[in-house]
Amino acid sequence: MSVDTAKPDLAPDDLPPATLLVCLTCRQAGVPPTSDDQRPGAVLMQALAVRDLPAGVRLRGVECLSNCSRGCTVALSGAGRWSYVIGTVDPAQHVDALLEGVALYQASADGIVPWRARPEIIRKGVIARIPAMEV
Ligand code: FES
């Protein structure tokens, strides 16, 4: 039995929105505990919230993505797309690269960004990927 996973070519404006989920409660290895609003996950969220997100991308804070030992953690999801959990994101170093990867993800109909096109934090930081849940 073969499965056709091909997607028709879609213009970027025709693609459904993608969501960047940010764990607000993440800590980072080697970073001492701080107050809740200064946890590295919250700091990452604050850094992303003041940036221009790629068109069609929503930002959402969540509490714990079950990747606590490899924070900061984010996840990418979108209708019809693979979802990704990404760890070891450093708010002081990776915001630009993360947004670059998010833009590539939003521009792909199936959520699969070619390996070589992925920024390093996404190539090295992916913890898990989950296929799209077709309804
Ligand atoms: S606290 Fe961030 S993944 Fe658990």
What would you note in describing this structure?
The chain is of the alpha+beta class and 135 residues long. It has a single domain, classed as Glutaredoxin, CATH 3.40.30.10. Helices cover 21% and strands 19% of the residues. The protein contains three helices and five strands; from the N terminus they run βαβββααβ. Strands 2-1-3-4-5 form a five-stranded mixed β-sheet. The longest helix is centred in the last third of the chain and has 12 residues. The protein is globular and about 45 Å long. The two termini are 20 Å apart. The N terminus is likely disordered. The chain binds FE2/S2 (inorganic) cluster (FES).
Bound molecules: FE2/S2 (inorganic) cluster
Major pleated sheet: 5 strands, mixed
Classified in CATH, the superfamily is: Glutaredoxin
N-end to C-end Cα span? 20 Å
Number of E strands: 5
Query: What portion of residues belong to β-strands?
Result: 15-25%
Number of domains: 1
Shape: globular
CATH architecture: 3-Layer(aba) Sandwich
Radius of gyration: 15 Å
User: In terms of per-residue confidence, which ranges show pLDDT below 50 for 5 or more consecutive residues?
Assistant: 1-8
CATH class: Alpha Beta
Instruction: Please give the share of residues in helix.
Output: 10-25%
Contiguous helical run count: 3
Give the strand order, joined by hyphens, for the main sheet.
2-1-3-4-5
The helix/strand class is alpha+beta
